[in-house]
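Per reviewer request, we include the raw input and output of the structure prediction for the construct analysed in the revised manuscript.
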Amino acid sequence: MELGVYHNDGTSTGRVVVLNPAVFGVEPNDHVLWLDIRRTQASRRQGTHKTKERSEVRGSGRKLYRQKGTGSARSGASVSPLRRGGGRIFGPRPRRYSIRLSKKTKQLARCSALSYKVQEDAIRVVEPLAFDRPSTRRLLNVLHLLEVIQRPVLVITTQNAPAVHLSSRNAPRVAVREARNVSAEDILRAGMIVMEEPATNVLTATLGASPMETTTS
């Protein structure tokens, strides 16, 4: 399984990178993908929701009027959930929404997402993006020359690249992720993936397979 490597100006370098089929060529598992995306989305929930129950609202706990002889329905305290201004029945309480998955399950989810993109021919491998300072125009120009700007783009860098990340903040539908931190959700949300050449080896090593070498055609 091979992909051509491009210069930052969109021209071919004449080299190809060999993708490890254990990462980029697995049989996609949709259920594992669903589990992992559910995990990443749940981890973003704060879980700080809270409403006051009858023991927490302000009001007297005294019975409003006698049980019988008034002609009205029986009634308890003013903080009863049945009365206006009373506490809420079974209201939300602070909780954690995080879901735990095994390491192999999370690895399989990312491999499945990458394999889908390989099947769709939605991955472009480029030489490292050597940005000495943030420049949204330069980043968009690179994506335009690669002919991927028409769809949501995910740029995968080999390591932490603050200049590239800052360049993407004002770019519509462009996200930048470090190879070792990219998630299955990031991959599936992207219409096209632009990956630095060394990032393929980082992804392969992170997902538990041996890196493959780049060859010259």
